[in-house]
Amino acid sequence: NNPQLKTVQTLEGPWEVCFDPKWGGPEKTTFPALTDWSKNADDGIRYYSGRATYRKSFDWKPNTEHRTLNTEIWLDLGTVKNLANVTLNGTKLGTVWCAPWHIAIEPRPGRNVVEIEVVNLWVNRLIGDIKFDPNGVDRTPGGMATRLPAWLDGSVPRSENRYTFALYNPWKADSPLQPSGLLGPVTIK
């Protein structure tokens, strides 16, 4: 029951993306185009779980149709895995968590800056951490923890390679990763 929207501009080209290094991602990188994190060559991005912020500048040239009082302008994110907070020119516009992945915007004529903060699921980080030392977590064949790691109480240092553990982890090192990130295409409609 959503109205048919007409694409008037596509935000193509590179995006600046900032990850949280405390969770294994690069502090700042550039994606030449929007791509799935789980297919990235960098393990810090491929296995990243958490929050990352995409940033891009674009020029807006409204035409006569856009200037009418009844015309709404939407930023359509294409596909997001799994949740996105949208900010335009420093103003927080809201959160999208399901299709259609779009939000109403009011771009100003000329240069605009859009920031899209994306949060994905935890599973990719859990799968990525399986290949490292279990760091004191013993498991049953079904994935249930039988002993908690000693580093939880501070008696031994935590492995530098692992970021996570869970009491129950049904995944294996070769489990398929979940699609993650802003997949796009990002358009103005």
Descriptive notes:
- The protein is mainly beta and 189 residues long.
- 8% of the residues lie in helices and 32% in strands.
- The protein has a six-stranded antiparallel β-sheet, with no helix packed on it.
- It is elongated and about 65 Å long.
Biggest sheet character: 6 strands, antiparallel
Query: Which ranges are low-confidence, i.e. pLDDT below 50, for 5 or more consecutive residues?
Result: none
Please, what is the average pLDDT? 88
Distance between termini?
Answer: 17 Å
Helical amount among residues, as a percent range? under 10%
User: How are strands sequenced across the largest beta sheet?
Assistant: 3-2-4-10-7-8
Oligomer: single chain
Cα Rg:
20 Å
Percent range for β-strand residues: 25-35%
Quickly list its features.
8% helix; 32% strand; mainly beta
Please describe the topology of this protein.
Layout: E1 9-10, E2 15-18, E3 29-31, H1 43-46, E4 51-60, H2 64-67, E5 73-76, E6 80-81, E7 83-88, E8 91-96, E9 102-105, E10 110-119, H3 123-129, E11 138-139, E12 145-147, E13 181-182, E14 187-188
Antiparallel strand pairs: 1-14, 2-3, 2-4, 4-10, 5-9, 5-14, 6-13, 7-8, 7-10, 11-12
Write a concise synopsis of the structure shown.
The chain is mainly β. It is built from three helices and 14 strands. A six-stranded antiparallel β-sheet has the order 3-2-4-10-7-8, with no helix packed on it. A four-stranded antiparallel β-sheet has the order 1-14-5-9, with no helix packed on it.
